[in-house]
């Protein structure tokens, strides 16, 4: 997919792999909404990106992806600002076995919700691409990380199952 001129929303974008996605998308000409719950890291990332890319090409949105209203709001703000949405990267994730219920909320429930919201917008627009970040722990057992492993297996199962349906809905809408 060529991303020049396209608009992407990346969750967990303030640091790590999400931040690297943002950098790569900007280098290829996209505009990007950085969605993250960490205000300080998000603002620092935005400031650093503004030194390399036109400030208008990025938007930082503070959002906890487990909060349904905040996540809906992040999509809405992205569309309001950039006028379209072409790429969603559901990347935000944690590896916290002690607070395992929160790990499920962030890693799996929010990825599913982010996919459904993305589909809702993309169906109305020009289609698009949704990327859900799993892990090797989604393909094999991970010692001492049973819940993280379950969430990452869940992402793969969900994404493989929804993909044909999403593609089918897209082609129905095309006709
Ligand atoms: N780092 C690895 O080796 C590795 C390997 C395989 C898969 N992954 C997956 O890649 C993704 C990113 O990992 P990373 O290593 O960059 O992690 P990281 O901890 O460096 O960054 C995660 C980002 O997500 C944000 N985040 C966490 N919970 C959030 C929430 N509720 N709402 C909004 N933002 C939230 C954090 O603030 C942070 O900016 C995760 O899904 C992780 O499971 C990482």
N- to C-terminal distance: 22 Å
The radius of gyration computed from the alpha-carbon positions, rounded to a whole number of angstroms, is 16 Å
Q: What value does the average pLDDT take?
A: 95
Major sheet size, sense and barrel closure: 5 strands, parallel
In this entry the ligands are: nicotinamide-adenine-dinucleotide
- Computed structural class: alpha/beta
The CATH superfamily turns out to be NAD(P)-binding Rossmann-like Domain
> Into which percent range does the helicity of residues fall?
40-55%
Sketch the topology as an H/E string, one letter per element.
Answer: EHEHEHEHEH
Helix tally equals 5
What features would you describe in this structure?
- By secondary structure, the protein is of the alpha/beta class.
- The chain has 5 helices and 5 strands; from the N terminus they run E-H-E-H-E-H-E-H-E-H.
- A 5-stranded parallel sheet has the order 3-2-1-4-5, with helices on both faces.
- The longest helix has 29 residues, at 146-174.
- The protein has one domain: NAD(P)-binding Rossmann-like Domain (Rossmann fold).
- The chain is globular.
- It has helices at residues 16-27, 39-52, 68-82, 100-124, 146-174, and strands at 7-11, 31-36, 58-62, 87-90, 129-132.
- The two termini are 22 Å apart.
- It binds nicotinamide-adenine-dinucleotide (NAD).
- Nicotinamide-adenine-dinucleotide binds at residues 11-12, 14-18, 36-38, 41, 63-66, 91-94, 106, 133, 135.
- The site of nicotinamide-adenine-dinucleotide has 22 residues, from helix 1.
